[in-house]
Amino acid sequence: MFFQYIIYTKQEYNRIKLTNYFFIRRVYVIFASMRKIILITGGQRSGKSTYAEQLALSMSKNPVYIATAHIWDEEFRQRVLMHQERRGPQWENIEEEKKLSSLYIYNKVAVIDCVTLWCTNFFFNKDASEDHQPTVAQALDEIKKEFDSFTQQDATFIFVTNEIGCGGTSDNHIQRRFTDMLGWMNQYIASRADEVIMMVCGIPVKIKG
Q1: Four-point Cα dihedral 142, 163, 203, 87, nearest 10
Q2: Which of 23, 86, 101, 193 would be a feasible disulfide site paired with 150, CB 3.0-4.6 Å?
Q3: Is 70 a residue of the active site?
């Protein structure tokens, strides 16, 4: 008997199965993962977010924008609304400060903007006193677990982050701790990413992939 090995995404397999059942019975089906992780990094005003949005739109007509910033006041909320209007109605906008793993984005293209603010929400617990803030190790461990759980889905993840450790060493111990933590998290994401792109003066420079 003649057999074939064919690689399908789950969506393709379900579509073909409905239209050609007898053909599928003679085929070994291998599901291809659709998961892809892209990390975009760079300095302030280097063009990271703009490039991430353009990249997402080139992959999907209706991408997802996941904002991780904590909204501190009404002025900041108005800025968020202004950015949502600028991106246009084709975007699905989601606000999630910490628990990205709670979001279901199967088979979608998502921009997560940004890792820096996401990490801030773990580094500083707004519900705890100054004496009961998490250590860098504790915060980093929690962020890694959230990242691993979130990125298990079959989706395209475009993470935007900052290179904040390229300047001089801060004389503030809190800033030094956060710079260390973000640097380690950037390394963690980069090690698992399919592509890493660094933005320099608005120009994307591919580092990995």
Answers
A1: 50
A2: 101
A3: no
